[in-house]
Amino acid sequence: MRAPLPNLRPHQHGFTLIELMVAVLLGMLTVLVISQVLVQSETRRRTISSGSDAQLNGALALFTMQREIQMAGYGTSANPASLGCKLSGQYGGTGATFSVPLAPVVISAGLNGAPDSLTVLQARTRSVAVPMQVKEDHAKTGVAFVVDSTQGVAVNDMVVAIPEVIADYATSQCSLFQVTTSTSDPITTLSSTRVPHTAASAWNQSAVFPAAGFAAKSYLVNMGNMSVKTYAVSAAYNLTSTERSWADGSTSTQDLFPQIVNMQAMYGKDTNADGIVDTYDRVTPTTPAGWQQVLTIRMAIVARSAKDEGVSVTTSQPLWDVGPNDTITGPATSSCHGTSKCITLTINTIPNWQRYRYKVYDTIIPLRNVLWNS
Q1: Between β-strands 117-122 and 227-233, what pairing exists: parallel, antiparallel or unpaired?
Q2: How many helices (H) and strands (E) are present in the chain, helices listed first?
Q3: How far apart are CA 87 and CA 153, in angstroms?
Q4: What whole-number distance in Å separates Cα of residue 344 and Cα of residue 350?
Q5: How far apart, in whole angstroms, are the C-alpha atoms of residue 365 and residue 267?
Q6: Residue 12: what pLDDT?
């Protein structure tokens, strides 16, 4: 009998079930590790990105406020004795009368650490805002001021009439009107010595003029396209700007920078007339002498990262370091950073506030127009 031929084909072996299960397990572990690394990397990237956005928003918000406040009071600070006069204006005979202090910056303090708002006033003229002395008495119902010179005044400019002496806010009043011209009558024609303000403009309402009118030696300040802006933090945590339109008397609000959660400000006051700020407080002056003490505005802005970290990453509210030597009246301070003093900036009213990161920006802004005219 012949022997069987040998099997020349090599033996073929497949994966066993156990080997397949081990391979699948290793693959799943590898995918899990890679996924966790990617998730952590993306989380860090978003944290860094949102932190950068917070820094950018905070820095730009502070820069915007600093630029506006530095120019505050242009025109109105020409005579320091008029600072704080109640400026009244009305658009249309039935329109609401608005009133703001004739001051560079007015701080409206928020309650219990809520964000403050700041109203900034300045002239925006085509030329210099030179005060014009009134040469003749001007009645409450008058239609033109007689002045020594109208240099720089143009039709449609907004002008403020200011009494010569302001001793008491309760009895003194400054009035806002708009320049008009009509060649049909010399009295109502804008000239080198006459500033008309007829009913051709809806801003010219005798209701905002004092009963006795304006006596000779009062003066006018040309505000041009006057800027009155109120900066505040909205409920959506945006720094906003609300500005009045001189075209129709309306106001409009614009969002400037997002993720701004608090803004605090104080007046820097020179109480002994030596030209140096002696104290910082939040008390708005009520007399011309009080307004003349305000030389700077000190403020802090708190910016928040946009990313909710999902866990508590902030354990305490941010602090505003005001230094060891400055006198702070009003806001409570506590010891911090060794010998320094800090003001706690309230953010714990924000939902889930501990799950966000925060950055504080602060500065001291000199009121240049007040200092130059002091």
Answers
A1: antiparallel
A2: 3, 20
A3: 20
A4: 15
A5: 10
A6: 57
Q: What is the distance between the alpha carbons of residues 97 and 90, in angstroms, rounded to a whole number?
A: 5
Using CA atoms of 272, 274, 279, 283 in order, give the dihedral in degrees to the nearest 10. Answer: 60
What is the DSSP secondary structure assignment for residue 78, as one 8-state letter?
G
Nearest by Cα to 179 from 165, 190, 169: 190
Distance between CA atoms of residues 121 and 228, nearest Å: 5
Reported pTM: 0.84
Cα-based distances in Å from 31 to 15, 17, 21, 75: 22, 21, 15, 69
CA angle 306, 263, 349 (to 5 degrees): 65
The string of pLDDT tens digits covering residues 296-327 is: 999 999 999 888 888 898 999 999 999 999 99
From CA 87, how far away is CA 221, in angstroms rounded?
A: 12
Kindly report the number of other CB atoms within 10 A of residue 285's CB atom.
19
* DSSP for residue 345: P
- Largest Cα–Cα separation, the chain: 148
Structure tokens at 59: 């820095």
Cα(203)–Cα(44) distance, integer angstroms: 56
Kind of pairing, strands 174-178 and 86-90?
Answer: parallel
Q: Which amino acid is at 57?
A: N
DSSP 307: -
